[in-house]
Amino acid sequence: MNDNNIVDIFLNPKSVAVIGASKNMLKGGYRILSNLVLNNFNGKIFPVNPNATGKLYGLEFKKSVLDIEEEVDIAIFYVPNQLIPKLLEECVKKGIKGAIIETSGFEEVGEKGLELSDQILEITDTFSKIRIVGPNCMGLTRIDSDSNKENKSGFFTSFLVFNEYKRGNIAIISQSGMLNGGYFTHVVTKYPNLGFRYICSIGNKMDLSEIEFLDYFLNDTDINVIAMYLESFKDPRKFINLCKKAKSMPDKTIILVKGGLTSQGQSSSLSHTAALSENFKLTEGVIKQSGIIQARNFFELFEFARTFSMLYKSKKILPKRGYLAQVFGSGGAGTISADLTMQYGLKLPILGEKAYSALVELFPPWMPPNKFAFVDIWPAMEKAMTNSKNPRDVIRSVYNILLEEPEIEGIFNMLFCSKQFRAVNDVNNLIDIISTYPKPVFLYLVGEFEETRQISQQLGKNNIPSFSNLEDMVKNFQILIQESKNKSN
Amino acid sequence: MNDNNIVDIFLNPKSVAVIGASKNMLKGGYRILSNLVLNNFNGKIFPVNPNATGKLYGLEFKKSVLDIEEEVDIAIFYVPNQLIPKLLEECVKKGIKGAIIETSGFEEVGEKGLELSDQILEITDTFSKIRIVGPNCMGLTRIDSDSNKENKSGFFTSFLVFNEYKRGNIAIISQSGMLNGGYFTHVVTKYPNLGFRYICSIGNKMDLSEIEFLDYFLNDTDINVIAMYLESFKDPRKFINLCKKAKSMPDKTIILVKGGLTSQGQSSSLSHTAALSENFKLTEGVIKQSGIIQARNFFELFEFARTFSMLYKSKKILPKRGYLAQVFGSGGAGTISADLTMQYGLKLPILGEKAYSALVELFPPWMPPNKFAFVDIWPAMEKAMTNSKNPRDVIRSVYNILLEEPEIEGIFNMLFCSKQFRAVNDVNNLIDIISTYPKPVFLYLVGEFEETRQISQQLGKNNIPSFSNLEDMVKNFQILIQESKNKSN
């Protein structure tokens, strides 16, 4: 069986056994079973626990996988580590193709754990008899249909309860269970419009690793963005080659947070996933050769993933040179933004004659527009209002002028969010203009916190990224340039 | 009159005239008058407008300041720029001590504005007859009592409506009106427990500048944190000297965002406040000699201000060496945090024998604690629960052990926020322990977005900083070390 086939079985099994399933609501085995059932997994589920009897969710407990009459694709383990070898032997005997071992207490705890790992190697005949995801992970997730839909569905094997999710074009590969647990919950409640297709918590990656999953996602046309957290590279050479392959694909972006960049981080990762992190220079080399986007932390990882997810969904053109225009209503914020823009290698160019003349028409004579692409829009709005014209038309005109300018590849627009100013802002008007052009427009939202949240979500639904920190906005535009350079190399 | 006296009159006037006050709700002059009246300004208010008659809020309109019989301390201008010279002459004649000119259209718009500035210089006899704040600003704010109190009060002269505010130990000096407007609204709705005392929008700072206000706040014992946005230094020498004075004061911290660090930013600031930004090297020199904390953007400015505000209010000791402990429930987040900690010059030290032995007692034998100060608390929690002990006591013990360790100067604690886990987290228990010790503890919150918001506010009320981005947490601890170095130099 080739690796893509086995990954396909792990992510799309027809039947699963939950070893360690439990009626006790405090146990992880209960939550795994609940996640599968309540999220309408479209395959068969067999709860396995020698100490349990009767049924849960109408499913009968089996004492052992060997008592299951039908075929089983995948076994999910949530039992104490010492029990694994014997149970895994039974899985081999049963002909189960793969095991997701969520239990911890292997290489990462030292000598005793290493003995267990050796036993697993022997039982599986170095993974020739059965393939392994984990151990020490939080399982795999596949999202088929959004949680707020009546026919919500997917394959959920984390031992953390999943209530909210949306299907989308992002896949996650992670050595931190958090990304198929607490942090995932954070991301989906923070960005309710952000959609995911797969989340793969690969833990100690004793067998399957980032390599097989990455390869699979490169071949999956549903996936545009692959977001990764790694503490070590299983096979740097293969990793680089897969990333290089992604560079030649116009609709794939890979973003990586690498843990263990410092000696302190390495000590941590050793006790976490037993990862022997590469030294910083090697990591730097792998990332450079891979031509992928590096994020510094989980926050950045998901903000970057959101940006690319939206960009692909809205079919915007990747900016190449970093020439953009700023439309700001605050000179102070505009100045800081102009500074940051330059610090990140972006540029607010001098406007062409035609564009400048068109802007001059909109502005009062005592407050002409700047000659470079920094538009303080208020004087133009005031002029319109004084002449009883609709300020929306000014916004529309300014956007048209800037986005028609060939040199300009995108816009940063500051929006003051206040219930009082809803009519003036007219977010729908903005969304309408932005959707007309293939150039990316990013919004910087200030004002009442709840109003910024609401507008951010309204924009999010329309795949327009918004930020509450200027520097985040600039960084997220900068990575587009970086990615377009990756793609053209 | 010395400068502190005139600043005192500007910030605490007994009577003000609002020149340009209006009954038209769309005009800034209406909003300035409303802000004063509705926020219970404790002085006299005189609306002035030659075209208005009758009363507003029971206050009778005057045609000119010369029609006011009583003494007037401060005139607030919100009229077209061309009208200012004549009206300012009347103020001088009336013996008004200071004018806050919010109108724009002076040096920042070029030649015509420069003529106006020259006229003002002449009329005021270079500010010897009357002192000026502005022009091109959003006024001054003094907060006496919180907006949610029945006796809410203060002195509010911005032309943007102020509904929410809290009195506190922060003063703002800003060349961006945003900080006495839209961004201030953002900050107070984002951090509802963050309190401010004064906000000074100084605009083009034709007369009074950061110098006079900074000097005043250094002498005001209510103020611990001075947050500034400057596009230029009015008098670098004086600025450095005042900052050096602050270094010798144990309860003052100055944080600065400097706009115009790049040529692009300089072009922006020129059209904003007519600021001729210093070149980058000079700015760098001023900041270095000043020994103040530099922030890169508004987001950082207020996050840093919040951290110091809380630190002073809770009387925590500034860490000196950057030795801290991490208490994390996620190995992945812990690894990234350990990396960032090291990248920012902080250290997770090896634990002393006593502390380590005490931790070992709490952990199961198959999962002993790390020898360095990175505690993955889950195995200890699980052990407690298995033995029917309260997991709160484990958290308390871990904190006690770490905070009693002489070398450790603070803690980073990750908290998974979920309605399900409220009992386990027991935030009140945490607050109680953290308040017992003088060492700062920062929390990293992940989980359900709304739950993180709520816990963040609960912590905020108790002056415990929390973050949703690891790197922000690390940066905010790093500036404490920086400030303690500033203070000891």
Description of the molecule:
2 copies of one chain form a homodimer. The first copy, chain A, is of the alpha/beta class and 489 residues long. Chain A has 3 domains: 3-133, 3-Layer(aba) Sandwich (Rossmann fold), CATH 3.40.50.720; 140-313, 3-Layer(aba) Sandwich (Rossmann fold); 325-488, 3-Layer(aba) Sandwich (Rossmann fold), CATH 3.40.50. Helix content of chain A is 42%, strand content 18%. Chain A has helices spanning 3-11, 28-38, 84-94, 111-123, 182-190, 210-218, 236-247, 263-273, 280-290, 298-313, 331-343, 353-362, 378-386, 391-404, 422-425, 427-436, 449-461, 470-488, and strands at 15-19, 44-48, 55-56, 59-60, 74-77, 98-101, 131-133, 140-145, 153-156, 167-174, 196-201, 225-230, 253-258, 293-295, 325-328, 374-376, 411-417, 441-447, 466-467. In chain A, the strands form 4 sheets. In chain A, strands 9-8-11-10-12-13-14 form a 7-stranded mixed beta sheet, with helices on both faces. Chain A has a 5-stranded parallel beta sheet with strand order 2-1-5-6-7, sandwiched between helices. In chain A, α13 (378-386) packs across α14 and α14 (391-404) runs parallel beside α16. Chains A and B meet through α5, α8, α10, α11 and α17 of A and α5, α8, α10, α11 and α17 of B.
How many strands appear in the DSSP assignment of chain A?
A: 19
Q: What's the level 1 CATH class of the largest domain in chain A?
A: Alpha Beta
The CATH homologous superfamily of the largest domain in chain A is called Succinyl-CoA synthetase domains
Terminal-residue CA separation of chain A: 34 Å
Largest interface: A-B, 74 and 74 residues
Architecture per CATH nomenclature, i.e. the level-2 architecture of the largest domain in chain A? 3-Layer(aba) Sandwich
- Assembly type of the chains comes to homodimer
